[in-house]
Amino acid sequence: MTTPLIERLATTVEDTARPVTDEDRSDLTAFLPLAQVYAETCGIAFDETRSLALAVHALAFVRRVRAAEHLDALDDQLAAEVAPGRMAAVRSLIDTYCTPRDFPARDTEVLLLALHFEAAAQLQHQSTAQA
Predict the structure, then answer these.
(1) Calpha distance 15→70 (Å, rounded)
(2) pTM of the model
(3) Which residues contact 114 (CB under 8 A, 6 or more apart)?
(4) How far apart, in Å, are the Cα atoms of 97 and each of 28, 48, 83, 92?
(5) What are the angstrom distances between the C-alpha of 99 and each of 28, 49, 106?
(6) CA proximity to 39, closest of 131, 129, 123
(7) d(CA 14, CA 89)
(8) How far apart are the C-alpha atoms of 75 and 3, rounded to whole Å?
(9) I need a labelling partner for 86 at 20 to 30 A (CA). Which of 45, 97, 122, 129 fits?
């Protein structure tokens, strides 16, 4: 998932104001496998579009961690869109990445990442139901 995905991400954003740097690649190489393990544990398959969306989110996330930036809080009702238990599991995933970097991730980061997993799980469920 990581190297080809990181290269696809780099190609996608190469003409933007902030292309993928070597530091980004290093951080993504540390973070994306954690996301992959979680997805596999939950039986969530990411299609190409959802994988790229996750990678774009991950790029912004690892940059925020490096810069010690935090996002504003989101509406608490968004958490209702997430399957029970997913928030705690994603919190663990994020803390695994953030704790060694001395970054206290807020609930907004957890919720945004959890929504990526939730969207992929719902798409997978819909395509299975239609098959």
Answers:
(1) 26
(2) 0.92
(3) 79, 82, 86, 87, 90
(4) 10, 24, 22, 9
(5) 16, 29, 12
(6) 123
(7) 32
(8) 34
(9) 129
Contact present, 78 and 111 (Cβ < 8 Å): yes
Give the pair of three-digit tokens for residue 98.
Answer: 């953030």
The count of residues in the chain is 131
**Nearest one of 30, 31, 33, 25 to 8, comparing CA atoms:** 25
**Number of Cβ atoms within 10 Å of the Cβ of 82:** 17
What DSSP character marks residue 18? S
Q: Report helix, strand and coil shares of the chain as percent, to nearest 5.
A: 75, 0, 25
Q: Which residues contact 30 (CB under 8 A, 6 or more apart)?
A: 97
Residue 88: name the closest of 45, 42, 46 by CA: 42
Per-residue pLDDT of the chain (131 residues; tens, 9 = 90+): 558 999 999 999 999 999 999 999 999 999 999 999 999 999 999 889 999 999 999 999 999 999 999 999 998 888 888 988 999 999 999 999 999 999 999 999 999 999 999 999 988 888 777 76
Structure tokens at 117: 């997993």
CA atoms of 74 and 81, how far apart (whole Å):
13
